[in-house]
């Protein structure tokens, strides 16, 4: 395959001569085609078994569509991992305004510490969380009503044929029982390590399996009531109204038993109330050497999460995870690859510095380097372009011509200077150039408007070339992202205290282009 794809370029000039072959090679080496990802459904099935996830409140009630999608998917996974590991504390690194943190706390009753380097983000998260708590009961009530409506619709859709349904279900289950042992199912022991008393049921013998399946075929009404109770049990404490004893027990209770039940109920309420809805926004800059005990005084067994941790923050969270025995699991989705620091980019000898790339020993031994241009390309969104959300060609053209002006008129600029999002604030190309020069601290007085427009007219006819070039960068983007993500996964595979690690596609890439999570769980014995 490598030999075939290499013919996309001329051997002598190394120029691209076969665009079709180039596109095929890029697709071949993309993460979705390499078969190294673990399906999200398999992970959830292994972690949760047959248990129901939390239902009711949807984050789209108080977030935009993109953030709602990300928070809903990731929070379900984080809760499943936390339950599996038997932990209640979560540390959200780069928590921003607390969208994920607050939802994990309120929807799943997890104790969440959200750490962000920006005090303005932390303050905004605190204020947002206070407002959210005010309206949370209304969101829960609405969720409960939606749940009741869905169950009612399911009940109305099914004919009242309990005996026939039971017979059909029994026959189907019994026919399938003998093949259950031979199916290639993902079981908890294969996918993730065993924690505490959590187990996922595995088939024992045909006889036992049949007996279990037969005993599981109850009437539809009984099953429905159990399903509703199962959902209610995973909601936060204040989302569930108490059932009076008469609703589930017709016999008369003695006074002593009534008092005992009432005391038990009060204790449960008090405990759940003290444990639920705990979210603490904190301000701190996280590095690979950060001591979490200095930030979180009551640090206990926990898991670490990061939703679109920027630049070096993603690899640093992985390093903290492997180094701190209290952190039992991690779920990290990185972004902003262009801001990664690279060990071999400038060939500088900095032995004490911790680099964002590469992480794994394999790439370090090869002295592998991507370079800023390649990392910038990795941030492009192929899936969005594929559905018609085209690249901002005009703004890219403005930036390209500005670069020519800077090189020819000013002799270049320092690498740490950036134009940023100037295009959206500009009324014309002239306005864009002048705003950009001021931002770069360059004197624009020696550049008349006519000179600026001369540059624009000189390169205007090449805008199509620029668009074609950027489309090639978009096609190559997944290949560069693969390298960065596999580097992180290989780093985890090199660690002795990791029981399972994998790459999981969490999000719809059209809604959220940086959609891959690096997930890992430590060995149970690690402490």
Spans where pLDDT lies below 50 across 5 or more residues: 158-190, 192-252, 269-276
CATH topology (fold) name of one domain: Rossmann fold
User: Could you describe the largest sheet, including whether it forms a barrel?
Assistant: 7 strands, mixed
From the spread of the alpha carbons, the general shape counts as globular
Could you spell the SSE succession in H and E letters? Answer: HHHHHEHEHHHHHHHEHEHEHHHHHHHEE
Distance between the termini: 45 Å
Q: What are the main properties of this structure?
A:
single chain, 527 residues, alpha/beta, Rossmann fold, seven-stranded mixed beta sheet, 22 helices
Structure in words:
The chain contains 22 helices and seven strands. Helix content is 52%, strand content 9%. Strands 3-2-1-4-5-7-6 form a seven-stranded mixed beta sheet, with helices on both faces. The protein has 527 residues and is α/β, with parallel strands linked by helices. Among the domains are: 2-136 and 277-386 and 473-522, Vaccinia Virus protein VP39 (Rossmann fold, 3-Layer(aba) Sandwich), CATH 3.40.50.150; 391-460.
Secondary structure: elements and pairs:
Elements (H helix, E strand, L loop, with lengths): L1 H5 L12 H10 L2 H4 L5 H9 L16 H21 L3 E5 L5 H10 L2 E6 L2 H39 L4 H19 L7 H4 L14 H10 L4 H15 L10 H4 L6 H21 L3 E5 L8 H4 L6 E9 L2 H11 L3 E9 L25 H5 L6 H7 L3 H5 L6 H18 L18 H11 L9 H11 L3 H31 L4 E8 L10 E7 L5
Parallel strand pairs: 1-2, 1-4, 2-3, 4-5
Antiparallel strand pairs: 5-7, 6-7
Helix pairs in contact: 2-22, 4-5, 5-6, 8-10, 17-22, 19-21
